[in-house]
Amino acid sequence: MSKNIPAGILATGKALPVGKITNYDLENIVDTSNDWIVERTGIRERRIMTGDESASGLSTRAAVIALERAGLTSAEIDMIIVATVTPDQTLPSAACLVQDKLGAFNASAFDLVAGCTGFLYGLDVAVRYINSGAARHVLLVGVDTLSPIVDWQDRNTCVLFGDGAGAVVLGRVEEGRGVLASKMYSDGSKANLLYIPAGGSTRPATHKTVEGRGHFIKMNGPEVFKFAVTVMVDSINEVLALAGHKATELDLLAPHQANLRIINFACKRLKMKPEQVLINIHRYGNMSSAAIPVVLDEAIEEGKLKAGDLIGLVSFGAGLTWGAAVVRW
Ligand code: UT7
């Protein structure tokens, strides 16, 4: 068997909508309070699409930055993966819209749906294409524009989510660097913990589904919470073992940004210091697939994530899905 070509993230970029909703704004929309939201989630504000912003537009903005930093043209991209549950429209994929906007005429393009774990699923796919030699450069975007599918009458969910996009360009790296191991998981028996009842092929849009608010996110928060704290720790430990490392060797952790209490719990069980854990949930809420690429991009800009660091990435979300990766930056 031929040896795997090492693959890693060459550059990152992000794009966030300009519109902002603070917890105080939400106090005027639903029966909630800034104190409750901060204490139970860590979130203070979130970005919201306005005007002509779109998932493909934000993705393209983030991708242009990542490509420029990687020193590549769009023609050098072999594959575009857009991880999202909120493409501009059901057909075609957001990835094809991004491919057109970038003029990436040598790239295949597809969307990947794995809830908030979408970015890590995309990373797993991209790395294996590069490992095998089937692709040289892959553009991976994690984008979610959740504001149109959040029920702004439901305080259980509307305080949690936000819109944004993060992009990475993956390519060949030197031996011992890049994505050392990654592993993805799923459990569809828990599909009803986080879902949108209508709008798919079994319950297409009708007056009844719209009046019944069937096109918005429904979530059993406490059950997802319990699930998340377990799988976050187990999956990062498992992927560390695959890479031949231990949690104590990690320099940094980039966890999914869904709830600060989930992050703190995982950080404690992994015996990591708070300053080793990348956090931006207070500014953006839960941006689903965009959470990890955006927090990585900010960590690089702030000088927290440096060449040679060992970093763990871990996420969970609708499906249910979860997964982790270990990267030597
Ligand atoms: O990316 C994956 C997506 N999802 C997640 O990761 C979510 C994971 N779950 C969570 O983050 C938490 O479960 C939530 C933040 C969603 C909820 O926090 P919780 O501590 O689990 O609260 P709870 O759902 O058990 O609700 C406690 C109380 C309830 O009132 P009663 O029944 O005790 O009177 C809720 O009605 O808090 C109430 N509540 C609120 N109060 C003020 C729920 N949402 C709000 C709110 N403002 N926004």
Low-confidence stretches: none
Terminus-to-terminus distance: 27 Å
Structural class, by secondary structure, is: alpha/beta
Number of strands: 13
Report on the architecture of this protein.
With 329 residues, this protein is of the alpha/beta class. It has 2 domains: 7-175, Peroxisomal Thiolase, Chain A, domain 1 (3-Layer(aba) Sandwich), CATH 3.40.47.10; 180-328, Thiolase/Chalcone synthase (Peroxisomal Thiolase, Chain A, domain 1, 3-Layer(aba) Sandwich), CATH 3.40.47.10. 33% of the residues lie in helices and 24% in strands. The protein has a 5-stranded mixed beta sheet with strand order 1-7-6-4-5, with helices on both faces. Helix 8 (221-243) packs parallel to helix 9. The radius of gyration is 19 Å and the shape is globular. The protein starts with 6 loop residues before the first strand and ends with a strand. The mean pLDDT is 97. Oxa(dethia)-CoA (UT7) is lined by residues 32, 36-37, 40-41, 116, 155-156, 159, 194, 219, 221-222, 224-225, 228, 258-259, 286, 317.
Blueprint (SSEs and pairs):
Layout lengths: L6 E9 L3 E4 H5 L6 H8 L3 E4 L6 H16 L8 E5 L10 H9 L5 E5 L5 H15 L5 E8 L9 H4 L4 E10 L5 E9 L7 E2 L11 H5 L6 E2 L1 H23 L8 E4 L4 H10 L11 H4 L6 H11 L8 E8 L3 E8 L1
Parallel strand pairs: 4-5, 4-6, 11-12
Antiparallel strand pairs: 1-7, 2-3, 6-7, 8-13, 9-10, 12-13
Helix pairs in contact: 3-4, 8-9
The protein binds oxa(dethia)-CoA.
The site of oxa(dethia)-CoA has 20 residues, from helix 2, helix 6 and helix 8.
